[in-house]
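Continuing the series of single-chain predictions for the mutant panel. This is the parent chain; the variants come on the following pages.
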Amino acid sequence: MLDRFFQSNFFAKRFSLEKHPKFPMLVFLILTSIINFLLCETIYFRILYSADQLYSPLVILDAFTGKGITHWYFPPSPYFFPDLILMSVLYFFVPFLYLPTMYGVVQMGFVTLGIYWVLNEFLSKSQSLLFLFYLQTLIIIFSFLGVVLKDNPFPFVYFFTNAHHSTGFFFSFFLVSVLGFNLRKQNWGISGNKRNLILRLFFYWIGFSLLYLSDRYSFCIGFLCFMTVYYFEIRKKNYRRLPKLPGWKLNFLILMFLLLNELSFYGIKQTLQIPNSFGILLKSISDKSVDRILFLSYTYLFDGSKHLFYQNGSLLLLISFCLFTVSKFPFRIRILLLTLIPVLLLLLIVVGRFTYLHPYPIRYLFPIWFFCFLGLSWFFQTICNRFPISLIFASFALWILVLSSFPKPRQAVAESFLKVTKQEVSYDFEKPIRFWSEGKKEPIPIDNLGKPYRWITGAFHTP
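Parent structure:
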């Protein structure tokens, strides 16, 4: 009976993918956008509207109200592209006080479309849609688990955040995927002449350069993903592999790319106030012995693992589930996970312990959770591949009803910051007060000693 039920489809005759290939995807995007909007307005609201998340909308506000941006103390990754570009576009169409929420909704919409486009190279449209259904459902379920298990912080909020590496990572991953497809098709002889390939590579160069100048962390992750897949692909014996480039050409291109973009970034730092990450890192480790560095690295990871164990139950469940199913993940995802885990842990130590001190910068590990979700979605799509479209839409409608019943803290949060009358406030208050007053209030951030705190702020219009 169940088998017959899952083979049936209420929309099979009226809205089949064969007759109306765009309709199910359009309905899917509308329903998931409503779900993601509600997630941003309920479970993830306080995080998305915290001081760490309001850098982008306030920079855009200053830029478009004539105040300029040269007075800003930018983060180490200034997130010019694609974060600030997307935020700039939304500024003209979305009420200012809803920018962080709508940014998360639009970002997830682009992620959904990008994954759908990539999957269509391997799967049918119905299989791709089913994969996206499992991905979205997993995000919802683990978001609920984060609330039930009282996670601190919520590890999956980075699907919706701006200026926290996630947008750059998504863009980087998409560029790498498209580049791989084009190189592979060129190798098969079905993607036009070399002139067209050179033109495409030029656009990839521009895209990766903009990303490098805006978010070097995301660029490095994308570059590492590409080189990992490339390394394994060129060893294939069949015609479907990526074309192998001569070693000296590849090394020359990489060196030229890094040199030109580092020179460009140096020029940008002469105009804008962006921290010198490498200088801070070298200063931090210059007076420490190798033994001391290793000891601090070990204790940092140990403390982070305790935080994960006691305060991130949903993440522990995700990792545990992946350990039992990883053998069913696609080969590329398994290889990327094996490569990224040690690299990202190393970056976690370098950035969180020796450059910009942070007790638990979990956002640097976000690519691991993302690939875990992709792997699990693939796993479910292969073992439960007869899920009717009508039930997909019905389950999303049910999630919308459930999320609609959640408390919405928007008004309470806005009122709590607007009633603050002090001119000198802590870092946690400065940007939220500016945001909720839409720039009318301009408090000054200070540290514990009462001195000006110049960390990612536009409050100081003079040096």
